[in-house]
């Protein structure tokens, strides 16, 4: 079975979402964010349906957010419990946490 996860980013200015698709599955994972202040985003929700759970989808969503935060110079408020847990697991991200 193909486990390819693809990530897309929907940026609506002051809010947006990362969407994860797994090959051959209709379910999608999502990580939503909103702008709290210029250069500060709040990661407020991560959801991965059980149909695609256990495949690293949530981690890939957070990785995409972190990559964009580094590229864009954002600070991240990890309001979502999963994102907060990922920040604890990755001390190398400490410079990005607001």
TrEMBL record:
- One Pfam family assigned to this protein is Acetyltransf_CG
Q: Where is the N-acetyltransferase domain?
A: 10-98
Q: Which Gene3D superfamilies match?
A: 3.40.630.30
What is the superkingdom listed in this entry's lineage?
A: Bacteria
Which residue windows are coiled coil?
none
Alphabetized InterPro entries for the sequence: Acyl_CoA_acyltransferase, Gcn5-rel_NAT, GNAT_YJDJ
Enumerate the SUPFAM superfamilies for this protein. Answer: Acyl-CoA N-acyltransferases (Nat) (SSF55729)
**What is the protein name for this chain?**
GNAT family acetyltransferase
Species name: Novosphingobium capsulatum
Q: Which taxonomic lineage is given here?
A: Bacteria, Pseudomonadati, Pseudomonadota, Alphaproteobacteria, Sphingomonadales
């Amino acid at each position: 079975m193909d486990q390819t996860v693809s990530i897309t980013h929907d940026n609506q200015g002051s809010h947006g979402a990362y969407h994860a698709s797994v090959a051959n599955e209709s379910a999608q994972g999502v990580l939503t964010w909103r702008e709290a202040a210029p250069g500060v985003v709040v990661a407020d929700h991560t959801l991965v349906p059980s149909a695609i759970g256990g495949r690293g989808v949530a981690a890939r969503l957070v990785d995409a957010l972190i990559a964009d935060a580094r590229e864009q110079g954002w600070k991240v408020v990890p309001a979502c419990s999963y994102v907060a847990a990922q920040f604890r697991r990755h001390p190398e991200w400490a410079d990005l946490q607001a």
